[in-house]
Amino acid sequence: MPFLSDTLARVKPSPTIAVTTKAAQLKAAGKDVIGLGAGEPDFDTPQNIKDAAKRAIDAGRTKYTAVDGIPELKAAICAKFLRENGLTYTPAQVTVGTGGKQILYNALMATCNPGDEVIIPAPYWVSYPDMVLLAGGTPVPVVAGIETNFKLTPEQLEAAITPKTKWFIFNSPSNPTGAGYTRDELKALCEVLLRHPQVWIMSDDMYEHLVFGDFQFCTPAEVEPALYDRTLTCNGVSKSYAMTGWRIGYAAGPVALIKAMGTIQSQSTSNPCSVSQYAALEALTGPQEFLAENCKLFERRRDLVVSMLNEAKGVTCPNPEGAFYVYPDISGCIGKATAGGTVITNDEVFATALLEETGVAVVFGAAFGLSPNFRVSYATADETLREACARIQAFCAALT
Q1: pTM value?
Q2: Residue 202 lies in domain
Q3: What is d(CA 363, CA 353) in angstroms, rounded to the nearest whole number?
Q4: Residue 162 belongs to some domain of the structure
Q5: What family does this belong to (predicted)?
Q6: CB count, 10 Å around CB of 361?
């Protein structure tokens, strides 16, 4: 009798974590490595948020809390949804989890049965398909390529829906591409979903505040109120507030779903960290001015990276609307050989050779469901990005 569960055979470790780990190991060994794999801001959590956590510790708020969040935080989340998204929720419709990932996982575990299908636009965040598999469902990737700026069309969504479809996972701005859907583009997708009442919408809005220029963020239940009763609107404090390690995510949706998610959480992690919840409370209710300042910083970095990568031979890099990623196409590099003699047969070989020959760590596109591409996280210092892109340019120029 095998010791490990059959479930484990259906999933794989996170490629983004693997790349970050390998880069860290090479750095520790004394190699000159620039890591562009980690999806987290390079600056510190704002001081007022850290101070709130310290106050919580000093006040003894270090005990168990309600399984799915303290009342004060739930109230702040309701206020955030109303203030920023025009969505009205009660605390009973809100759940707080240990990071955005747990929120999505809880929802899938609470709803997926064998044979249930979950539509996932590709390129996708690496964890979506594996979480569906862990929950017993069937991921249905639908490729949205560079020709549509990595955005799913209504026709593609319509064609992917079957009687077995339970969820449609929507992420805008996107990890890994940074692509953001306009209100009209999202409205067109919502019109398709209105025709299929068995399909629920899981909207991952984690990069809501990281949008550039005149792009306006919107979320499905806001754009189409008729979908409110079958939409789980998910968010968190990780990216916008530079709180990745604090592990607080949240969502709002129908009471029955929220209760079911709470049941899953009660038998897995129980409550999120109490101190982190008070920090998140300050994040949502405290000063928000720095969000716009950070956006300007990321927009400058985006422009730098897009410009330099488009100057690399064989590389095409679209200009994304948000998040802090770009997803260059390397079709022009496939079939060529590196200065070290490696033949570039796919994007994983490209990323491996790039790391070994130049010390630049990126994540290969196959991990996100679309090749030949790679993902760059530009959540790091300008001078570091400039040096990394110069190395990528030199690497591509040497291909023959």
Answers
A1: 0.95
A2: 52-285
A3: 12
A4: yes
A5: Belongs to the class-I pyridoxal-phosphate-dependent aminotransferase family.
A6: 26
